[in-house]
């Protein structure tokens, strides 16, 4: 466990260098790969040898490497790519922030703010290259979680859906594909919507987007009024970025926008009691390190913040991933 970051940082190096993209479906020598990636030959070999020992790449003959199913996840040209996730988690933003974990535990201030002097979202606004990696990695996470959300939560009866803080719109488009009667609104900050427009334009240049006439992109902040009177307001990995006061403020904006029949759907980890392993428990520590006030919540904590926002927590629907769908409705609605 103590040396776990050796593995994650090695994966980061392979992702950053794009090694899986250069190997693709044909084995390559480390010398050829070093020339292509402009790296030191012996050092690259040592990296590949180590990764092969944990199932990422395989040394097929002395000095020659091929991909494996795990290595293929580091390719940028596969639908379930985790390359951007590997880059984001290994890059300086996360590494310096986790290096300040003791500061975060002592003070409650994020390790990120200690490292960079500003909050995570202001930093990404000021550093668009890092912000782009963040957006793409969130799309990668969304692809993993979308299948579970769509399979395990029944969206039947929801004809209009607002994806609040929906980033590049990966989850929204997946839901629209599964529910052809539904229309959607992707709602996020102006700079995120501009990146989403560019991403969507690039996709439309390569493939037919069967949902393109059923959603619109709207700029705004979830601390301000949201598009009103829609059937449901979806917030995936939004509430966990904020302390209770700000989380309640976001939910109150949903409450004010909702019609009597509307739902709010919060997609987050719900921390169970007891000592059993659960990925959300370490995601909770990541939120401590990355976002001042950020946290994963228990069912009781969700009940409390919903009540403060004049919402009734109706049910919690677990999915086959790390997240659940926490469903609420307006009190008296």
Tell me how many strands there are. Answer: 12
The helix/strand order is HHEHHEEHHHHHHHEHEHEEHEEHEHEE
- Output the structural class: alpha/beta
The helix content, as a percent range, equals 40-55%
- What coarse outline follows from CA principal-axis ratios? globular
The count of helical stretches stands at: 16
The portion of residues forming beta strands comes to 15-25%
Residue stretches low in confidence (pLDDT < 50, at least 5 long) are none
The side-by-side strand order for the widest beta sheet comes to: 6-5-4-7-8-12-11
Summarize the structure in words.
- This protein is of the alpha/beta class.
- Helix content is 50%, strand content 17%.
- It has 16 helices and twelve strands.
- It has a seven-stranded mixed beta sheet with strand order 6-5-4-7-8-12-11, sandwiched between helices. Strands 1-3-2 form a three-stranded antiparallel beta sheet.
- Strand 5 (183-188), helix 13 (190-206) and strand 6 (215-219) form a beta-alpha-beta unit.
- Helix 6 crosses helix 11 (128-152) and helix 10 (120-126) packs across helix 11 (128-152).
- The radius of gyration is 21 Å and the shape is globular.
- The termini are far apart.
């Amino acid at each position: 466990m103590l040396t776990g970051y050796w593995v994650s940082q090695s994966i980061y190096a392979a992702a950053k260098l794009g090694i899986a993209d250069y190997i693709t479906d044909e084995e390559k020598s480390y010398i050829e790969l070093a020339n292509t990636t402009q790296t030191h030959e012996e050092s690259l070999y040592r990296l590949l040898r180590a990764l092969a020992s944990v199932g990422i790449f395989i040394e097929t003959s002395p000095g020659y490497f091929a991909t494996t199913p795990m290595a293929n996840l580091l390719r940028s040209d596969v639908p379930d790519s985790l390359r951007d996730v590997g880059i984001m988690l290994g890059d300086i933003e996360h590494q310096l922030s986790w290096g300040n974990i003791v500061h975060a535990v002592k003070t409650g201030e994020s390790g990120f703010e200690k490292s960079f002097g500003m909050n995570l979202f202001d930093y990404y606004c000021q550093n668009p290259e890092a912000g782009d990696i963040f957006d793409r990695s969130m799309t990668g996470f969304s692809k993993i979680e979308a299948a579970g959300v769509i399979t395990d939560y029944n969206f039947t009866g929801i004809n209009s859906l607002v994806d609040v803080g929906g980033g590049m719109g990966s989850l929204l488009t997946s839901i629209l594909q599964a529910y052809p009667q539904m229309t959607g609104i992707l709602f996020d900050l102006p700079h995120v919507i501009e990146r989403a427009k560019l991403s969507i334009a690039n996709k439309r240049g390569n493939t037919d987007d069967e949902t393109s006439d059923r959603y619109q992109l709207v700029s705004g902040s979830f601390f301000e009024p949201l598009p009103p009177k829609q059937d449901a307001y979806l917030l995936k990995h939004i509430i966990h970025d904020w302390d209770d006061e700000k989380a309640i403020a976001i939910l109150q904006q949903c409450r004010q926008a909702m019609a009597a029949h509307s739902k709010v759907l919060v997609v987050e980890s719900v921390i169970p009691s007891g000592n059993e392993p659960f990925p959300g428990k370490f995601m909770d520590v990541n939120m401590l390190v990355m976002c001042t006030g950020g946290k994963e919540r228990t069912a009781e904590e969700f009940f409390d913040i919903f009540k403060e926002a004049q919402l009734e927590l109706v049910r919690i629907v677990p999915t086959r991933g790390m997240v659940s769908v926490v469903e609420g409705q307006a009190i008296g609605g």
